[in-house]
User: What shape does this take?
Amino acid sequence: MKPLTRILVGIFVAALASGCAGTAPVQNINQSIAGNHSEVQVRRAILYVGLNRGWIINPVSEGVIDGKILLRGHRADIHIAYSTNRYQIRYVGSNNMDAKEGKIHSNYNRWKANLNKDIQLELARQNIK
Assistant: This one.
């Protein structure tokens, strides 16, 4: 193989690999809640953390909150179902997040993981009082 052909093949393979590196399987969260919390406390924790993390939060009904985040031209929509002992964060839809075939831009999973971590911390903080 000629040197120029090797270089072009290498560039093509690298470009192909980097295009795939930015997506990951969509991760939905099913989180149990430690301690004793009322439904109002869980709701407040989710609302407080969501707003502080930059999510646009919309309480839909008792035990249900919808959220969306808009960052640098990207949008992700989530659905949060909660009770006194658990909550679930589910993917609803997105724009400009390379979502297809159960995969999405890896930032989405990071945003949702950060939201989940902070909800857990807020609920733990409530137990300290």
